[in-house]
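Comment thread on ticket #2218

A.B. wrote:
> Attaching the input chain for the structure job we discussed in standup.
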Amino acid sequence: MAAWVAQDPPVLKKPNTKFRRLLVSQDHGEVYLIIATFDYQYVEYICALGTGSRGKGSTHPFLEMREYGPFEVKSPEQMEQLGIILLGASIQGGLWDMFQLRLYHHGVS
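C.D. wrote:
> Ran it. Output below, let me know if you need it in another format.
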């Protein structure tokens, strides 16, 4: 997750913005959803953009990750549930914005 944030840092549109990333992972027949939540202090820290809280003994939780699952790939009911969740995330715009950003970085219009 840290490498992903460092490679594609979010754009700060307004102060105190909370950012989220959705990671979908699979382990054999199980699929997991991991939602990471972080703020711009974490982006500064991980990208070494500023001083951030490094070395100050901060108790600020830079990155919070929540795991949901497993969703069994052999279970039609669980795959339907997973599909609905991923469709909802896509419609919300988070995944589409990230897809557009990746296309922009790769020079695709």
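A.B. wrote:
> Thanks. Noting for the ticket: The CA atoms of residues 69 and 92 lie 21 Å apart.
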